[in-house]
Amino acid sequence: MSSSVYLIEGARTPILKARGKAGPFASADLATLAGRHLMMKTNIQTSDIDETILGCVMPSEREANIGRIASLRIGVPESVPAWTVQRNCASGMQAVDCAMNRIQLGHSDIVLAGGSEAMSRAPIMFSDKYVVFLGRLMAAKTPVAKLKVISSFRPSLLAPVFALEHGLTDPVVSLNMGQTAEQIAERFGITRSQMDEWAVRSHLRAAEAFEAGVFEDEVVPVIDGSGKLYDRDDGVRSDSNVEKLSTLKPVFEKPYGKVTAANSSQISDGAAWVLLASESAVEKHNLKPIAKITDVRWAGLDPAEMGLGPAHSIAKLLKANDLSMGDIDYWEINEAFAAQVLACVEAMASDDYCRKQIGVDAALGNLPIDRLNIHGGAVACGHPVGMSGARIILHMARTLHLQNAQRGVASLCIGGGQGGAALIERM
């Protein structure tokens, strides 16, 4: 087994905010655009790739095994296998983890791994009752039988079923993701003003980063079918302020909740890829990696408190690599909700929570806020669920170079009660 897995290069699309209609790109389109650009940035040929792995939560009915579709459209040869993984919000990180495992086992030397999601195109479906009605109608053999079925029709059968709404609701605990954020905010005493302040911080830091060119080597400009150019995450608001955000009403626990649309991650579309290679491939192709992915760890917890997943997975990651929080230079915790990020910080600093819930001897420590999500996060940029795990890994690798730092951790919570965390080291 080879222990070293190198991140050679990466690219992502801008993240496009869903605006009440289908976005300009399907998931496979986004993955293809980002992937083609990535391949042009390296001296690796598509024929050098051994495998393609893509994370995606909700591909369309025309995107079965979307990893294969994107791989072929990027120009990877037909002989190269490609597959799709799904771990809810961490699907992109799962793709990277799978790629690492394939390389470490010696089965592949160069793997294209990433994540894509077009949340704006989540399907709207018929209800089960209407499907039964249609089945009865198709099974009716005679005109009289068909008329009998038709006479049972009621307009209520046409009530739409929104796949995204169901996908963002945990079927085990019957809570949507916003309600789980409310729960952990209550547990750790996170106030509405703290959430709104964090949301403003996210927007302002992301806006500053775009203006400073932080994302130039990361974000691929894309053009839609009507010729419109997208060159940055279009949900970022440089004019965001607490006064405006404080006027918004809660959306998940009315009327007394604290979580609003503004201090939650945005429903959005986007794709990100990274190119991973073994040490032998680095030498063979004379590659210059930007980072080494040292480890990825996963943890499970109560689905009703899924937002605390990063605290659990970070604990596992640090223990497995004999590190403390002080050994980490920069942190990314995906901002599913402002409340969730703030609660993770509190949980890791709590002796009681770490002992009773995570199972470690003492608090992990105080995570330095000035080293966390320094270029904003998903509250500002968006959280295309299949993409985000790959995006934060790529951005952490870039951040370490920009800050001339050595180690970073990228982590995120996962619907269903899990957490994932990756340890990245600058080359």
Quick structural gist:
This protein has 427 residues and is an alpha+beta fold.
Largest sheet: 10 strands, mixed
End-to-end Cα distance, whole Å, is: 21 Å
Counted beta strands: 16
Portion of residues in helices? 25-40%
Low-pLDDT windows of residues:
none
* Helix and strand composition category: alpha+beta
Mean pLDDT: 96
- How would you sum up the global shape? globular
Radius of gyration: 22 Å
Please, how many helices? Answer: 15
Strand content: 15-25%
SSE map:
Elements: E1 5-12, E2 16-17, H1 27-41, E3 51-55, H2 66-74, E4 82-85, H3 91-104, E5 110-118, E6 124-125, H4 128-139, H5 143-150, E7 161-162, H6 163-167, E8 169-170, E9 175-176, H7 177-188, H8 192-211, E10 222-223, E11 229-230, H9 242-245, E12 268-278, H10 279-284, E13 291-300, H11 309-320, E14 330-333, H12 338-348, H13 351-358, H14 378-381, H15 388-402, E15 407-414, E16 418-426
Parallel strand pairs: 3-4, 3-5, 14-15
Antiparallel strand pairs: 1-12, 1-13, 2-12, 5-12, 6-7, 8-9, 10-11, 13-16, 15-16
